[in-house]
Structure formats: C-alpha cells, structure tokens
Design brief:
Low-confidence stretches: 1-9
Bound molecules: zinc ion
Distance between the termini: 22 Å
Helix content: 25-40%
Number of strands: 20
Strand content: 15-25%
Number of helices: 14
Largest sheet: 6 strands, mixed
Length: 440
C-alpha cells in the first residue's frame, strides 16, 4: 500500500513540519471564551488525514469540536493517548511585542498565544502521529491523539464531556499530557520533571450572617462584614501539619537518595538541595487556603446582614473535603458561620512506575545519559484527571523542555510574549514517537 504523504514530504524534516503546524495553529484564534476550537480541530484533522490517519470530530456544539485521531493497534497491548487542548487564554495585543496570533518564527522561537500552553504540544503530538503513520507504524494498542476543547474554562465542552458521552473514543490505559517535562538542575545533576499527580481544586464559600440596619446607627445592627473580617484574618494564617507525600519522597529519592525522615524537615531539605526544589515541594506539604473574593452589602448606607467570602482551596491528592472542612473549622474556631464547598476537581494521582514511566526514563537516558527523571505533583490541575477518574488511566504530564529556560517559560504561560523554542518542539516530537514505540 502506498502511504499518502500530503503537503509534507520526506524532504521536509519533522522539525520544519512541527514548526509550520504550530504557526498555523497559533494563527487560528481559539481564545476561550468563546473557544471556537473547531477551527483547530478541522485544521488538525485535514493535516492528519493527508497523512493517512483516520479522524473523528466530537462536538457538543458545532463551534467547539474535539478531535480524536487514532492509529489502530493490533489489540495485543495497552492504548496510549496523546492528550492536549486546543483552546487558549486571552491575549492583549497592547502588551505584546508581536501580534499574539502571528505564529511568527523569530530567532529560533515561534511566538504567539498558546505556543507553550499548549499548541506546541498539540502540534508535536499530531506530527508524531502523522510521521508514525507514514512509516507504517502498527502499535499493539491504539495510539490515540486527543485534541480537546475547553480546558482553560471547563464548561463541559471538552475532555470531561468526551469521557462521559464518548468513552470508547478516548478510553486509554496510558496518556501523556501537559503539566511538566522541564529540565532543571538539582544537586548538580540535570533532571526532567514528570507530573504524576495533581492537587484538588476545592474552593468554598465562608458565609457569615448578621442583622441589617441603617449604616448611620451601627449599634442597632450586627455587621456581617465586620464579623467576617476576623475570620478572613484567621484564614490568612492557615497552616497544617506538613505531610510527606509519595511524589515528594520519590523526588528526594531521585535527587539525593532518600527523603528526610521527618515531614517537618522537608522544606529545609528541599532548600538545601536547591531553592527551586522548594517550589515543587511546598504546595505538597499540605492543603492551602486563600481568601480571594468577598461580597457584602449592595448599598453604602445599609449594614450587611450577610457576607460571603470565596476561598480558593487546594487539597492534596486523596484528601477529602470533609477532612478539609474540619481543618478549616479548627482554624476559624467556634462561631456563627457556614462553610460550603462549591466544587471539587482533580486530586488524582498515578503510580510512578510501569511501562510509560519506563518509556520516559528510557528516552531521557538515551537523550541525555547523565540526567534523571523526577516526579512532581502539580498544585493546579489538568485534563489528566478526567482520564484518571473515568478510566483509571495512568496519566503523566511530560513534554520535554531543554532549550528554553524553565523559569522564563513559566513566566510566559498565560502572559505576554508567549513563545516556544523550535529545538524543544523537535525534542517533543522525538519523545512522543519514542514513547509510542516503547509502549508497543
Ligand atoms: Zn494548558
């Protein structure tokens, strides 16, 4: 059988192929809201079908399509999903040096909204799939490419909806998504970070009641806002007993051979390794609470009978809201208030071992023999948790980044002048192709 090779031919390198595809994707405005991810899904679908990969669009509403493409497996092995999202956050052109939707290549970097988060990985995943298809690659389990809509806002147009309404299209035993892959130096040795777990986003409302009255006579009322102020102050001082989570223990094992014996020493031990290690370790010592929004009276001269404070709260993987509520109540003490959790998303983890973990280690060993792989748990959450929840998928965040400075990249995500290095895109394609082969 002759494989169709479309706009891309053998004379075009994978590097050029992924760079062009990323530029094209950036030029399609998929800022969410409103999203319009169908633009990206159709563009990717056309590219993949030119390369002999069967594609399917799944859309709850026409303009917000998800793309699922696959190289069918022989059924003898596990399925691997290359997971990504095509929507981006907004961009204000006034803050940028270049048009955020230019996709311009300048000094080896491609500029534009989504270059890092995460159209770069979208493009690399598509190119990995297309190039493997051109080579006649036959995996043991399906190799699936999922370019989902609506990750940045999460109003149920994307992977959550796919997992629920079209589970057979996206079911996979393993998946690779965004989340990590940064290369950092710890204790004098390079490490590539792989995210294997995520905290749970678990915001709650603190509701404080009082009695309204005319603001000119404060003594006849009971001001809910003033009562809330004391409680907000206590939340600002919230701390919990530090814990040693398995991902933190494994990070120490990888870097210095063993974790500290006492969880209370983790932060100091991380500091001794490198200040950058503190950034990965600190969110994992316990749940966090941050009061961020408050509403009280709608009128200046009316003393509020109700004050509602919205509190951002992040739980450790596996930690329950009941447990969290108890900790918050201990901090607030006795009093006339109510707590209501308004959501609970994420908070899942995958084992730090198995064939996909080995594939990451194998690629790193082959690519940079002196480097190691270290697991991290994300303080935020990604679409990976939908896969873990729905199918028990072993889901990792890993897209190697070696050429762009990690600290620079972190500051560019969701910010002005977002851009990615073409050398890293090429590296990403290489890793994804390696992982697909290793899993087969
Ligand atoms: Zn993202």
């Amino acid at each position: 059988m002759l494989l169709r090779v479309g706009a891309t031919s053998e004379t075009v390198s994978l590097r050029d192929e992924v760079a062009s595809l990323l530029s094209e994707l950036i030029r399609l405005d998929t800022v969410n809201p409103p999203g319009n991810e169908t633009l990206a899904a159709e563009h990717l679908g056309a590219y993949l079908e030119r390369n002999g990969v069967a594609c399917e669009l799944y859309a709850k509403v026409p303009e917000r399509a998800n793309l699922v493409a696959r190289i069918p497996g022989s059924g003898e092995g596990p399925r691997l999903a290359l997971l990504s999202h095509t929507d981006t956050v907004l961009a204000d052109p006034a803050e940028w040096e270049l048009d955020p939707w230019s996709g311009e290549l300048r000094d080896g970097e491609i500029w534009g909204r989504g270059a890092l988060d995460m159209k770069g990985q979208v493009a690399a995943s598509a190119v990995a799939l297309a190039s493997l298809a051109r080579e006649g690659f036959r995996p043991k389990g399906d190799l699936i490419f999922i370019a989902a809509a609506d990750e940045e806002v999460g109003l149920d147009f994307g992977l959550a909806w796919l997992c629920r309404e079209h589970p057979e299209a996206v079911r996979a035993e393993y998946s690779i998504n965004e989340g990590a892959g940064d290369r950092i130096e710890l204790a004098g040795r390079p490490f590539y970070l792989a995210s294997t777990a995520e905290k749970m986003s678990s915001p709650f409302i603190l509701r404080v009641r009082g009695r309204s009255g005319h603001a000119s006579m404060p003594s006849i009322a009971d001001n809910a806002l003033v009562k809330a102020a004391k409680l907000i102050e206590r939340l600002g001082e919230f701390t919990t007993e530090p814990r040693l989570e398995p991902e933190v223990a494994a990070l120490f094992e990888a870097v210095v051979g063993a974790p500290p014996e006492d969880a209370g020493e983790v932060l100091a031990a991380a500091q001794a390794v490198d200040p950058i290690a503190v950034e990965f370790v600190e969110p994992l010592l316990g749940m966090t609470v941050s009061p961020t929004m408050a509403t009280a009276s709608q009128k200046r001269n009316v003393i509020p009978a109700l004050c509602e404070v919205t509190v951002d709260c992040r739980l450790l993987p596996g930690q329950t809201q009941a447990e969290a509520e108890q900790a918050v109540r201990e901090t607030l003490g006795e009093g006339d208030y109510e707590l209501e959790f308004i959501e609970g998303q994420g908070g899942t983890r995958s084992p730090m071992e198995g064939p996909l973990w080995d594939a990451i280690e194998g690629w790193v060993a082959g690519h940079e023999p002196e480097a190691g792989v270290a697991p991290i748990c994300l303080a935020g959450f990604t679409d990976s948790h939908w896969m873990r929840d729905a199918f028990g998928t072993v889901a990792y965040g890993f897209f190697p980044m070696r050429h762009m400075d990690t600290q620079v990249a972190t500051r560019l995500v969701h910010s002005a002048n977002e851009r990615t290095n073409v050398d890293d895109l090429e590296l990403g394609v290489d890793f994804l192709r390696y992982a697909a082969r290793a899993m087969s």
